[in-house]
Amino acid sequence: MYKAQIAPSLLSSDFSRLAAEISTLDSSGADILHLDVMDGHYVPNLSFGFPIIKAVRNLTQLPLDVHLMVTNPDFHVPRLIEIGVQWISFHQETVHHSHRLISQIKEHGIKAGVALNPATPINTLDSILPLLDYVLVMSVNPGYSAQAFIPEVLDKIQYLSDYRKAHALSFYIEVDGGVSAANSTALLNAGADILVSASYIFNSPSYSTAIQALRH
Ligand code: DX5
Ligand code: ZN
Q1: What's the gap in Å between 147 CA and the centre of ligand 1?
Q2: Contact status, residue 83 vs residue 60, Cβ threshold 8 Å
């Protein structure tokens, strides 16, 4: 029913050659580009913001998936809508009224997702799963690429996959953090649909081989 999609995260790309990196990803079978926005408050790191996202928007036709790791996602969503991204996720831990923000994103024809830290129980999402286009399951603590995969999240993916089936829902399950060919099969078997990967792809001599290796 669901086909695995690979979403390279630009966080590990060479920013001094961003256009070339994106063009290589474009011709290497990437399905989606994952953009990690960090504010230095919600996570202990800063990445990039609207000007860079806008530049990326002009460099590729691939769908852009913006992962907001910020304390005030409500403030950023309107700018992302304006830029024309296709997917937006925010962290459940940062928002008081997630139902409202999800509805706002979806009203603009953009896929809405909620991200969950490794320490946040998965069943806290139950009541909004029917509304969501995707769940972003964090398999590292957000903030940096190249961290070790936390294997306990496999149970969360399985939970979501079982819940989706039991309730005839259709949200995607996206997994982010420490994803490599060493765990991609387990992730896909547990029910993941979209695999985000930064360091594994960008440290590989061939992005295309790495992307292929993640598919099974
Ligand atoms: C972590 C980011 C991830 C990160 C993944 O805060 O949300 O998207 O770039 O990096 P890897 O694949 O190297 O763990
Ligand atoms: Zn991410």
Answers
A1: 8
A2: no
